[in-house]
Design brief:
The chain is an alpha/beta fold. The protein is 22% helix and 21% strand.
Length: 413
Amino acid sequence: MEDNAGKILSAGGGGKELTMEKDEATPSGEEYEVEAVVDYVKDESGKEWYQVKWKGYPTDQNTWEPKDNLTGCNKRIKKFHKHLKIEKLNRKQYKRKRQRSEEHLEMSKKFAKLESLVDHELMPLDFAAKRALAKRSLQKWEDDMNMTSKPKKEAKIIVENDVDAEGPPQDFTYIIDYKAVGELEIPKDPLVGCECEDCYEDGGPQCCPKNSGSHNPYHKNGRVKVPPGTPIYECNKRCRCGPRCPNRVVQRGRRFKVSVFRTNNGCGWGVKTLQDIKKNSFVMEYVGEVISNEEAERRGRVYDANGRTYLFDLDYNDGDCPFTVDAGRYGNVSHFVNHSCDPNLVVYGVWIDTLDPRLPRIALFACRDIAAGEELTFDYQMTGEINSSDSAAPKLQPIKCMCGTEECRGFLF
């Protein structure tokens, strides 16, 4: 059993020899007790030495003792090494904290120096940081839009901004179908459907277009063959024909890859195709919130103040326009399609699962061949496109047109 008192007896010579029994005596009869182990070294030969503080003696009487002489002080030696380890760890932590403090101080000095620079010197650094932040947020926005488009298996959307540090629009939610507002309900359960097995080959008077008093709107390759202003009735969920029916085009969704890109002419965001598009091909739908005419008037005044518009009247029936599509806060890629007085897209009214004549879908088709990389545009006035009559009333005060085409009218409205 170890002696907790740590008494040692004089052995003569340079050191004092520790014994196991505190009442054991040396020939001289002089007894010493260890108060603490205060230091430790290892000599060149590897021998360990401990500096010992003796109980009842001042510190200038401390002596160095070889470990062999301290056989009765194992607990004190272990305690010393434990404290020594903690002390070394604390020194390292202190050194690390001091180093971090110095680094923080140095960074603070650098930032203070940067803040003291004139605006034109600070701008490049600020712009680069904003561009980097915008790039990350635009990538996430791109991923979110493509994820939302998955149910319709639509073609991929790319987001590009090589012009400025603008990020995604802050108050915009990407959707792929109409969003009814308020008490409005959009019926999606048609009462009738055709019994055709092949609507292109043997579509008779009971096929959806003819049954609705219209004409077969598409060629077999899915390109539209009726002029703008002609209503299009596609086969619906009650029809016998399958998903490959030539009369199912708009409902299949967008099939061309597009890029939402930042324009360099001051028009903000725009949309360009990444693939060649043939004339009369379906390109995209125009979707958004379906609102009442009264709500459209209220929102129109807000858009007027900001010099922009996203309102699209569903005015197919003469003198009857109870609903408007607003793509301002909710919409798909068509939200970013810019106006042109010489557009490459034209508008058609399409009915699929909703046969209410007041609620057509708005489909944009190519009115000429469009090359990959070309910006997609349509005429915001839409005169004679959904309806052959000019029944739409403008929602905004005159807005300057920036399309830059030879046919430019000077104003959007």
